[in-house]
Amino acid sequence: MTTAQGARERARNEVTAAIKEEARRQLAAEGAAKLSLRAVARELGMVSSALYRYFPSRDELLTALIIDAYDALGAAAEKARDAAGEAAPVDCFIAVCEAVRTWALTHPHEYALIYGSPVPGYAAPETTIPAAARTGMVLIGIFRDARRGPGLDELPLSAELRPEAARLAAEIAPDLPPEVAAAMVAAWAQLFGLVSFELFGQFNNVIEDRERFFRHAVTGLARGAGLR
């Protein structure tokens, strides 16, 4: 890459970052449904045609913001997992859950973009899947390590649910039995239910000491899913 090419690439990256930062500001002020490329361009002092060279449509800008949010959340989960080191599976699970909660409380509008109400008229493309899977892969890894190491209780599974659980296991973790896959996904869903209840106000006038309540709840999730 020549010096001129490097300078152009740096300039493009800087403008792209500025566009996304202004878009996040609009998310916080107006919500994703009202995100407007023209408004972003106006706030940055750009003409709309110039901004379209970076993001040809609102949906492409939304997709970039969604991928960034999923990646940031996934990175927080991975950092917590790595920091837990050789901790017991329950403790590692709790550490990752607390990192998810902390990230969500620190970035509420980005969390709402990926786990809140769908944006009218927008359908996330497959390019969002790798980033969206990062946090889930951390949780799968905890269950996988627990089964290989200190042990994992395989919870009973009804005959009616077994075909669905077997399909689920084949898709997300072929090396884990259906019982584990079902328990793991249930715990994953309940984790984000707890975070969403707190973030979107359902715990208002209900739970006061939310940090201790969250830790108690996710400890129960871990043990209920079979982690020792």
UniProtKB/TrEMBL annotation:
Domain HTH tetR-type: 13-73
DNA-binding region(s), chain positions: 36-55
Protein name: TetR/AcrR family transcriptional regulator
Lineage of source species: Bacteria, Bacillati, Actinomycetota, Actinomycetes, Kitasatosporales
Annotated keywords: DNA-binding, Transcription, Transcription regulation
Pfam families xref list: TetR_C_33, TetR_N
Domain of life (superkingdom): Bacteria
InterPro entries: Homeodomain-like_sf, HTH-type_TetR-like_transc_reg, HTH_TetR, MT1864/Rv1816-like_C, Tet_transcr_reg_TetR-rel_C_sf
Native organism: Streptomyces graminearus
